[in-house]
Amino acid sequence: MTTTQTITIELPKPLYNQLRRAAELARQPVADVIQKSLSHSLPPLLEDIPLEYQVDVYPILQMDVENLQQEVRRVFPAGRWARYEALLDKKKQTLLTEMEQAEFNALRREADVLMFRKGYAAVLLKRQGYRPPSPGELPAVQ
């Protein structure tokens, strides 16, 4: 069973009327509409990101809209991606050398960090009312 917490907030009359009307149209209590709205508008907690990546993602929280938009459009450099894929293919066939394994791990982490940062930036943009770019609007691999 989920426990709940009751809070009291003051809302401007127009906002309350909008909530009330949305609840009427949805045939739901106003409290349910508020709960759903909050659950969709709050960003994921940094704790939802694996611990090993949190330090890399944390700076995203301090970014303004322009920097968030730049972050969403960042791409993994093509040369580094090609090297990652080459190492991955080799790893499927044989053992990597110690140096190759270290390089593979570093490239994989770099790609993971990029994806976590891009995803978190997109969520923060959406939360601020901006539409994240569609896949077709994103830059191609460099």
Strand content: under 5%
- End-to-end distance: 50 Å
Low-confidence stretches: none
Report the principal-axis shape: elongated
Order of helices and strands: HHHHHH
Tally the helices: what do you get?
A: 6
Labels describing this entry:
62% helix; 6 helices; mainly alpha; 2 domains; elongated; 142 residues; single chain; 0% strand
Please characterize this protein's 3D structure.
The structure is a single chain. This protein is an all-alpha fold. The chain has six helices and no strands. It has two domains: 1-42; 46-137, no CATH class. Helices cover 62% and strands 0% of the residues. Helix 1 (13-26) crosses helix 2 (30-41).
Summarize the topology.
Blueprint: H1 13-26, H2 30-41, H3 51-57, H4 65-73, H5 78-93, H6 98-127
Helix pairs in contact: 1-2, 4-6, 5-6
Concise summary:
The chain has helices spanning 13-26, 30-41, 51-57, 65-73, 78-93, 98-127. The chain is mainly alpha-helical and 142 residues long. Helix 1 (13-26) packs across helix 2 and helix 4 crosses helix 6.
